[in-house]
Amino acid sequence: MSKHTTLDQLKKLAQRSKAEIGKVDSKVTSLSTRVDELVTAGGEPNVITAVKNNGTALEITDKAVDIGASIAAAVANSDHLKRKVVTGVDAIDPAAADADKFIYMVPKTGSDEDDLYDEYMVLEGKVEHVGNTKVDLSGKVDKEDGKGLSANDYTDEEKAKLAGIEMATDAEVDAMLTEVFGA
To answer: What is the tens place of the pLDDT at every residue in 140-183?
Structure first.
């Protein structure tokens, strides 16, 4: 059975946590001092020692590397998939030169909705069904004033369980804190 805690009990936890944080802070300070000593002895933090662009080693000068084309330009010049509505799977030619550049949208037959499509792609020369545009909203819950955004209506039994949760005593919280943090 879980129990609730009071504000005073949480304060005790925070005070013990603060003491533990103080111990960690002293270790961080010690580590930072050691890093500074290594830098003073000639070590260089955050220095690039080798860079390759598409497998080609680049020259490093003054701790800098110039990679010609920007990432944005490379993405803009790359091939992108485009959607293409076709009448049926038979209308997809897997041998076409650009066949693998499209997501083919085939209208879903037997549907009373005109925005449902089966999606196909040409993968390794074969037409493959990869999904559809159907969105299942059957579990969607609309927000109503005065209600939480949940389809769960709590029973009297569940409400009674929640009301029956017992508060932890100060002694129980002290014992837990001693167990976790020591005396």
So the answer is: 777 777 666 665 667 788 888 888 888 888 888 888 888 878 77
CA–CA gap between residue 57 and residue 49 (Å, rounded): 11
The total number of residues written for the chain in this structure? 183
Pairing of strands 3-4, 166-167: parallel
Domains in the chain: boundaries: 80-139
Q: Taking Cα atoms as reference points, which of 133, 115, 66, 123 lies closest to residue 94?
A: 123
pTM beyond cutoff 0.70: no
Rounded Cα distance between 67 and 60, Å, is 11
- Which helix (H) or strand (E) segment holds residue 132: the answer is strand 126-132
Tokens representing residue 122 in the block: 């040409």
Both tokens of 183, joined, read 């005396």
CA distance 67 to 131: 38
